[in-house]
Write a structure and sequence with these properties.
Blueprint (H helix, E strand, L loop, with lengths): L5 E6 L6 H13 L5 E7 H7 L3 H14 L7 E7 L13 E5 L10 H10 L5 E5 L3 E5 L1 H28 L5 E5 L9 H13 L6 E3 L16 H22 L6 E5 L8 H11 L3 E5 L3 H12 L1 H16 L1 H5 L16 H5 L3 H8 L10 H9 L1 H7 L1 H9 L1 H22 L1
Parallel strand pairs: 1-2, 1-10, 2-3, 3-4, 4-7, 7-8, 8-9, 9-10
Antiparallel strand pairs: 5-6
The structure holds zinc ion (ZN).
């Protein structure tokens, strides 16, 4: 099973927007760019919304059927580990193996020593074409093993387990994005050595980048440094593929937390210059487009959108807790529930829609609503019914968001 050059990970919390999402991919194809759609949903999301992984497979299959999509498509078990992979085994064909928690835990001493031994030919001046020259010592090899080897060994255990369970094969990703520090190009190169040593046929790898990747809002950080890291990672991957015999289609996976618009241009330029591929995970914000669509539809749709805000405000602390490291909400910038209750649908939509040029856009309200999906989940049938009733308004927003704000700037111009 082989992942194509460009792939786009889409989240859809409530499983109603598969067709609207796929329509954006169809638009890209019509514009001449082949992008493989990947529907992803993490274990945490399934737990909060109360869905089973098989439902995401059903959604993807039925969207593909509805639009008569002939290209390939994937279903991603996002951020899984040994403890929860079983519920995803038969309905996913893309597995994001998350070993971020094990970074920094030391592997057994003999394993560290044998890693250093096995890769001692790199000691000295190491040129990674496109990323520069690095001075590698036995100590630096040991340090990188001490930080990452245990994590990669753990990825190996999960990888081999999935392998025994799936005759049809799968696309493996190793993710290290949910950790403290960005990996250097040299670390990236040696992490890939470990991945190869473990026999993991990784097709995508998700590193940690500099800057804040807060949920649902734009990138906050040094764009020049991000660009440097992104280019260095591309170089380290290309070199590691040739040195370690990793799959030729191995590429970067960017876990964007949605909507990192200001880094799309450097990403596009790097891809066009190098010919590299990418997997980009985004569109957890599809759920926010649902709210925007409901608000714009007015009536019961707007009422629901306002209720979601009021209840999210009440339960802010609990809703934010699981996402504490990836949101920055200034409560002083949030409108009161009374204020929002007095808004028109247009006011609501403009405060929420991720349009940086709009003076009404409020990134604090946006982040709060982003984590407020639990409130909508608790509305149950009432929420799902509204999605159906106001489907044209909702799907128009979902497609337009993915196509115009994501796919176009990433892959076209
Ligand atoms: Zn991630």
């Amino acid at each position: 099973m082989k992942l194509e050059r460009y792939s786009f990970g889409m989240g859809d919390r409530f499983l109603h927007q598969g067709v609207a999402q796929l329509q954006a991919i169809v638009n890209a194809k019509k514009a001449g760019v082949d992008v493989t759609p990947v529907w992803n949903k993490s274990n945490r999301e399934h737990d909060i919304v109360g869905t089973e992984p098989a439902s995401l497979r059903e959604e993807a299959d039925s969207a593909v059927k509805a639009l008569d999509w002939k290209g390939s498509y994937r279903v991603d078990a996002d951020h899984i580990n040994l403890g929860n992979v079983d519920r995803f085994i038969h309905c996913s064909d893309f597995f994001t193996i998350d070993v971020g928690d094990a970074i920094g835990q030391a592997a057994p001493e003999p394993d560290i020593a044998s890693f250093v031994q096995r890769h001692s030919r790199f000691i000295g001046e190491l040129e990674i074409p496109g990323a520069g020259s690095f001075n590698v010592t036995a100590e630096s090899l040991e340090k990188v093993a001490r930080t990452f080897l245990k994590a990669v060994q753990q990825a190996g255990v999960i990888y081999r387990y999935i392998e025994t369970q799936r005759d049809a094969g799968f696309i493996p990703e190793v993710s290290m994005d949910e950790t403290e520090n960005p990996q250097t190009p040299l670390e990236m190169f040696f992490i890939l050595a470990m991945i190869s040593d473990e026999g993991i046929r990784a097709q995508t790898i998700a590193p940690k980048f500099t800057g804040r990747f807060n949920k649902g809002v734009d990138y906050v950080g040094d764009i020049r440094q991000f660009t440097q890291e992104f280019n260095d990672d591309l170089a380290a991957i290309a070199f590691a593929v040739s040195e370690f015999g990793l799959p030729g289609n191995l590429k970067l996976s960017v876990h964007s937390g949605s909507d990192k618009f200001s880094i799309y241009q450097p990403i596009r330029e790097a891809l066009q210059r190098t010919g590299a591929g990418i997997h980009i995970k985004t569109a957890g914000t599809t759920w926010l487009e649902e709210l925007i669509g409901l608000a714009e539809a007015g009536g019961e749709g707007l009422t629901i959108a306002k209720e979601v805000y009021a209840r999210s405000l009440e339960k802010m602390d609990a809703l934010c807790a699981p996402y504490a490291t990836v949101i920055d909400i200034d409560a002083g910038q949030l409108p009161s529930a009374d204020d929002v209750n007095g808004w028109t649908g247009e006011q609501y939509a403009r405060a929420l829609r991720h349009n940086l040029a709009d003076p009404l856009y409020n990134l604090h309200l946006r982040q709060l609503l982003h984590v407020g999906y639990k409130v909508a989940a608790q509305m149950g049938e009432r929420y799902y019914g509204a999605l159906q009733e106001f489907e044209p308004s909702v799907s128009r927003n979902v497609t337009k968001n993915l196509w115009e704000r994501h796919l176009k700037p990433l892959f076209i111009d």
